[in-house]
Amino acid sequence: MKQRILIADDDEKVLTLLSSSLKKAGYDTSQALNGAGALEAIRNEKPDLILADVAMPEMDGFELCRQIRNDPETANIPFIFLTAKGELQDRVTGLGLGADDYISKPFHISEVTARIKSILQRMAYMRPPAPAQEPETDLKGNLEQLNLAEVLQTLQMTQKTGGLKITNGNKVGKIYFDRGAIVQATLDKYKSEEAMYRILAWEEGLFEFDSSDRAETRAIATPINKLLMEGFDQRAEYLRYKEAMPAFDMVLKISDIEKADEAKPAAQKVLVLINGQRTIQDVINVSPINYLATTKLLYTFLKKGMVEIVEMFSDQKGPRDYGQLAQELYE
Hints:
Keywords: DNA-binding, Phosphoprotein, Transcription, Transcription regulation, Two-component regulatory system. Residues 4-120 form the Response regulatory domain. This is Response regulator. It holds the Pfam family DUF4388. By secondary structure, the chain is an alpha/beta fold. The protein folds into 3 domains: 4-125, Response regulator (Rossmann fold), CATH 3.40.50.2300; 137-226, no CATH class; 245-329, Arc Repressor Mutant, subunit A. 43% of the residues lie in helices and 19% in strands. It is built from 13 helices and 13 strands. It has helices spanning 12-24, 35-45, 61-70, 88-96, 109-125, 148-157, 192-200, 224-244, 257-261, 265-271, 280-286, 291-304, 322-329; strands at 4-8, 28-32, 49-52, 79-83, 101-104, 137-142, 162-168, 171-178, 181-187, 190-191, 206-210, 252-254, 307-309. It has a 6-stranded antiparallel beta sheet. A 5-stranded parallel beta sheet has the order 2-1-3-4-5, sandwiched between helices. A two-stranded antiparallel ribbon has the order 12-13. α4 (88-96) links the parallel β4 (79-83) and β5. The protein is elongated and about 70 Å long.
């Protein structure tokens, strides 16, 4: 049986294009020219996914999404905003209402179909398993195939309770859920938001959700969409610094003891970790302060000549110009 997509847009040309393209991709479609008509069709048809514009007459896409999420019979239907509005606040509003994705116009139809396919596959993975005597793993995979944001939003949308274990090399982080809300995160000595943000910085790894694994304490009250926004903002800035710095597997040592001794208390917390044996990544991993703040401090130490690399790779052509890098980083 074909999956049905409900398309809501006040532009008839967009409706025709999307409907024709999605039918070629193997889906059934239904259409609505405004939010009110879409809401009625959704309640009658229970489509497998909703694709809706934001700016529509009678009822806009935000209100449509709100009503869909507030109705238990339609609350779990995947919802994608399709709109000409690309501002960050619009995205935050849409995701905060429970939307699963946000595609800005102009769009390429291959992008739309790819995102629809990804979300519907994710929903298929999350269908309740058959009853079992022992707790079973509900969801597992590779972050290269399903990114962490999608995994977390899936667990939120399906109101899961349990622990998500994420493994990256020899590091193991856990994010705990209670009825779809994130209530705790742990990574080595780190807990709560800092553990969450450090885990979100990982570019690869394996994940596994276990509904029998529960948090001992509730330490996070921040909504998941706000956590993701902050976490991925930090991750993006961290990756920019990482690209501008030497390889993170290089060992650091103090090169100017006098400057190091005069550093501020926050900087001292990082400088004390630099012992001529730890790599840049080691220092970030054990730092008592936020990982992004630690990375920024290390960048500054290198720029000011307070620390240096113990041994440069043979293909490195002289020292980096950190003044130039600093300028490039903010261009």
